[in-house]
Amino acid sequence: MEDNRFIYIDEIYNQQVKFKEECKETSVYNRVQLLKKLKATILHKEGEIKDAIYKDFRKSIIETETTEILTSILEINHFIKNLKKWTKSKSVGSSLMFASTSAKLLYEPKGNTLIITPWNYPFQLPLVHLIASVAAGNTVILKLSEFTPHINAVIKSIIIQVFVSNHVAIVEGEIEETTHLLALKFDHIHFTGSPAVGKIIMQAASKNLTDITLELGGKSPVFVDKNINIKEVVRNLLWAKFVNMGQTCIAPDYLLVDKAIEQEFDHAWKEEILNAFGINPIESNDLARIINTKQFDRLENYLNELKNSDTNWIVSGTNNKSDLFIHPTVLKNVPINCALMEDEIFGPILPIIYYQDIQQALQIVRSKEKPLALYIFSKKQDYINYVLGNTTAGGTTVNDAMLHIMHPNLPFGGVNNSGLGQSLGHYGFKSFSHERAVLKSNFFPMSKFFWYPYNNNTKKMLG
Ligand code: NAD
């Protein structure tokens, strides 16, 4: 029997395919007008956005204001300011051989795009990639995560208000809906999510040789030298680790710390967690919740596995399943081959490894997949250079955490298992554009030096 459940997806897709050429021709002025309308609609619905994300996983209002709404608005502003410049063709220099030609790069919309997003930053992630694709002149089907129904409803209402559905449309649903979408032929797929699903996306895209951007995850290590202001570094990492309840793709996953500062460092974590969340962190308004019981169980299993090991529990407390609350947890002496040290943690659990020799720390990082982010804290440039020179990562912030993602002129992306391609700002625009090479012979066809019959001139040209 024919499966008619996803006819609505086919209808949206077919409409967008028909609209593709018209969409490609929209002027930069019109695209900017749409971005301005999108910005105004977001600001108008700010209250609804905050309420919805609170309902989905109790994210604090201040975190939603900064990490969801502000980041989206800053990205829109950046595009509004620069789109004209970015869409202009760029002349490229020539060599003597090409002296009679001119050469340039054109930025063409790719066409029909599919954007698939996860639940952890359920407003910002769909929005920033949507902004880039629309600004580049594409149609978009936006597939939202099935785990955030409240914010999905608000995003849908924003999209309907700003765009016609043959230009931008939302598809909600689970694996079946995504699988159906992935069987369709798109010109670009932008996926944000886990490396495991990233492989499924890449395989599906390969059937049509569809261009892809994969924004994935992994274990992001932090190197901490003995030469630091301990309190400042711990406060910094405390925020980076516990914002969004640790459910951040570039959150510090584990720390590699010089053993010389072990005692003071342990003590600082105890003190700063108490200062930040009080004696009973479950009552803190600043801590979000784990998204669902599946993720809660995954995190609790990591901790259960450690109960009979030599793990030292620097900070821990009672977890609460009905409230989807995992107590902020800091550990040391965890077995190197436990699940916590194998998987991306993606929750409020932080293992610390104290090293005596930096080679030991480098070896641990190199034994794992290439990380999405890597952080270094040191006052010594030699230490920073040594770690940079002996590791790789999608991006790095030095003496601070996570800020490289916010810089308007840096690309964001992973490397191999943590991602393919780059996003955000100009890099996002380029990911959703085809950079077309155009060469024009100005005075005579340059290829005439190669024309038949071959002779000595040809030999000279081919050098
Ligand atoms: P996920 O890979 O499970 O899901 C992401 C999206 O893929 C969702 O829309 C989901 O519905 C869909 N999906 C899930 N299984 C699928 C399947 N078998 N076939 C087709 N589609 C499927 O990821 P998640 O749990 O929602 O998010 C957490 C992961 O995302 C973490 O690994 C995190 O590091 C990563 N992440 C990366 C970034 C980044 O920018 N690099 C940002 C946020 C999250």
Please sum up the structure shown.
Helix content is 43%, strand content 17%. The chain is α/β, with parallel strands linked by helices and 463 residues long. α3 (46-57) crosses α4 (61-87).
Task: Characterise this structure.
Keywords: NAD, Oxidoreductase. The active site is at residue 215. The protein is an alpha/beta fold. The protein has 16 helices and 16 strands. The protein has helices at 7-24, 28-44, 46-57, 61-87, 124-135, 149-162, 175-182, 195-206, 230-242, 262-277, 293-306, 339-342, 358-366, 381-389, 425-431, 456-462; strands at residues 90-92, 101-109, 112-116, 139-143, 168-171, 188-192, 211-215, 221-224, 254-258, 312-315, 329-332, 349-355, 373-377, 395-398, 419-420, 433-441. The strands form 3 sheets. Strands 10-11-12-9-8-13-14 form a 7-stranded mixed sheet, sandwiched between helices. The site of nicotinamide-adenine-dinucleotide has 27 residues, from helix 7 and helix 8.
List keywords for this structure.
single chain, 463 residues, alpha/beta, 6-stranded mixed beta sheet, binds nicotinamide-adenine-dinucleotide
CA radius of gyration is 25 Å
- In the sheet with the most strands, the strands line up as 10-11-12-9-8-13-14
Low-confidence stretches: none
Q: What small molecules does the structure contain? A: nicotinamide-adenine-dinucleotide
- Amount of beta strand: 15-25%
| Average pLDDT score | 96
Which range best describes the helical content: under 10%, 10-25%, 25-40%, 40-55%, 55-70% or over 70%?
40-55%
Distance between the termini: 65 Å
The largest sheet, given as strand count, sense and whether it forms a barrel, is: 7 strands, mixed
Number of helices: 16
Structural classification: alpha/beta
Count of DSSP E strands?
Answer: 16
The best one-word shape is globular
Pfam families: Aldedh
Domain Aldehyde dehydrogenase: 17-437
Active site: 215
Family: Belongs to the aldehyde dehydrogenase family.
